[in-house]
Design goal:
The protein has 145 residues and is α/β, with parallel strands linked by helices. It has 6 helices and 5 strands.
């Protein structure tokens, strides 16, 4: 399977958020080419500002594996993680993070700049299906204005 394939699955989760009038961010966690967890933003639904796609996917993966670390896993996220999610990803010791669209307003890079916020062994890739990921976010916020 390719990064594009898994990012399409993360986008499917983001569309679920969009359909529920949530900020459309989706995440999936893959281990040994198998999806072990999924998540999408549920901040409004759960009335919880921490109910981001990444947090929901991480919690699901921890429960599925019965473990608190994910060094062999990859998370695919439709949008650059925020600082809170970067912290959760750090503590998870996830092996790889792949995200689609950058988020200049709320992404981790706004706060951390050139500082690495993830575990030292974590690999980061970005820009996978970035146009599709960005378009969904732009459409959502156009509808809100």
């Amino acid at each position: 399977m390719t990064d594009e394939y898994y990012m399409m699955l993360a986008l499917k989760e983001a569309r679920r958020a969009f359909d529920e009038d949530e900020v459309p961010v989706g995440a999936i966690i893959v281990m040994n080419e198998k999806v072990i967890a999924r998540g999408y933003n549920q901040v409004e639904k759960l009335n919880d500002p921490t109910a981001h796609a990444e947090i929901i996917a991480l919690t699901s993966a921890f429960n599925f594996l019965g473990a608190k670390y994910l060094p062999e896993a990859t998370i695919y996220i439709s949008v650059e993680p925020c600082l809170m999610c970067a912290g959760a990803l750090y503590w998870s010791k996830i092996g790889k993070i792949v995200y689609g669209a950058s988020d200049e307003k709320n992404g981790f890079k706004k706060t951390t700049g050139h500082q690495w916020p993830f575990h030292p062994k974590t690999v980061l890739e970005h820009g996978i299906l970035k146009e599709e990921c960005a378009e969904l976010m732009q459409r959502f916020f156009r509808m809100k204005r």
